[in-house]
Specification:
The chain is 46% helix and 19% strand. With 353 residues, the chain is α/β, with parallel strands linked by helices. It folds into 2 domains: 158 residues, Alpha-Beta Complex (Spore Coat Polysaccharide Biosynthesis Protein SpsA, Chain A); 139 residues, Tetratricopeptide repeat domain (Serine Threonine Protein Phosphatase 5, Tetratricopeptide repeat, Alpha Horseshoe), CATH 1.25.40. InterPro entries: Glyco_trans_2-like, Nucleotide-diphossugar_trans, TPR-like_helical_dom_sf. This is Glycosyltransferase.
Length: 353
């Protein structure tokens, strides 16, 4: 079975080498479809003996990806973006997957790097990127592989840092606004545009979009847990604290096994209490309970989970809670547990002023 790397690119000279270097040994050919670069992207692609094609951009990601897939000569395709790169040795996993019967679509693990209130954070997701070259995409943006084949997680891990300290929503937001106008009852696109606004630090718009999305979900959507967690973060960031408590109460059964939910709920309660101590001070014990529950759940492979909410970040925040409430011994214990992960904020706390 021959494997094609299939990419669509535009002005990616700063990251394209890193991407191709990470994957070239796993593939039999490299297909690069350029959608209008004005830098050295195409020249870099040609350094790797890539087959490079020009494509007139039509504000439709699925159309561009499908054009790229049409150029592939391998029976299988691996799709990457230029701001992604493979981080594990996965030759055996890829070969085993594409040689296995019955045929399936491979979901790779992607780690998204982003800036959060506590510094650099990492969110994990599983996306369909390894599949027969006959498959095609649908959707103008945040496009999905259309296929009845089962989805199976495959041992390929990629890092993605395209939105880390790099505001890249100039292309995405206009398309999302158009798609929302065409599909006003679909919560998925409100959820996606909220993430774009979050990257631009437009917290009011992110909150408003997630409020729309939350009102439309059925809780059967695969992204529903992450949407709810992100909605609580947006409530905190935008200062609309009055709406958050009812969501925390309503979603505890649905998200009973989500460390991210209990982590953000503890953050929310702290902000709520600080906003009106006289009214909400009786909620203080729940902060400890929620962090302890996050730690009890621990780190998981759940879609959209942020690394650390079930381990070092929860230990650290619980340490801060104990320190503020005067229990220094417990605070130091939690800081030491977080420091075991080399978590810098806890190491700094242990060193003192």
């Amino acid at each position: 079975m021959r494997l094609s790397l299939v990419m669509i690119v535009k002005n990616e000279e700063s990251t394209l080498r890193r991407c191709i270097d990470s994957v070239s040994k796993y593939v039999d050919e490299i297909i690069i479809v350029d959608t209008g670069s004005t830098d050295n992207t195409k020249s870099i692609a040609l350094e790797y003996q890539s087959r490079v094609f020009d494509y007139r951009w039509t504000s439709d990601f699925a159309a561009a990806r499908n054009f790229a897939l049409e150029q592939a000569t391998g029976e299988w395709s691996l799709v990457l973006d230029a701001d992604e790169y493979i981080t594990n040795e996965c030759a055996d996993e890829i070969h085993s997957f594409i040689s296995h019967s019955p045929v399936a679509i491979g979901q790779v693990k992607r780690i998204d790097k982003f800036n959060s209130k506590d510094g650099v954070s990492f969110e994990q997701s599983y996306i369909s990127r390894l599949f027969p070259s006959s498959c095609r995409y649908s959707g103008k943006i945040h496009e999905q592989v259309v296929s009845a084949l089962p989805r199976v997680r495959v041992g390929v891990e990629i890092q993605h840092d395209g939105y880390f300290e790099n505001k890249r929503s100039d292309r995405n937001i206009p398309i999302l606004l158009q798609v929302i106008e065409e599909n006003p009852e679909d919560p998925y696109y409100y959820y996606q545009i909220a993430k774009e606004y979050r990257g631009l630090e437009e917290h009011g718009k992110s909150y408003a979009s997630l409020k729309q999305a939350y009102g439309k979900i059925t809780h059967k959507e695969g992204y529903a847990p992450t949407l709810i967690v992100n909605y609580l973060y947006a409530i905190i960031s935008s200062g609309n604290l009055g709406e958050g408590f009812s969501i925390v109460q309503a979603e505890q059964d649905f998200l009973s096994e989500s460390a991210d939910f209990y982590f953000v709920s503890a953050l929310f309660l702290l902000e709520l209490i600080l906003s009106d101590p006289d009214q909400y001070s009786d909620l203080i014990p729940y902060i400890e309970r929620f962090y302890l529950r996050a730690l009890e759940i621990g780190e998981t492979e759940q879609e959209g989970s942020v690394i650390g909410t079930g381990s070092f970040a929860a230990h650290h925040n619980l340490g801060v809670y104990y320190e503020v409430t005067g229990n220094i011994a417990k605070a130091q214990e939690q800081y030491r547990k977080a420091a075991a992960y080399n978590y810098q904020p806890s190491l700094a706390r242990l060193q003192g002023p």
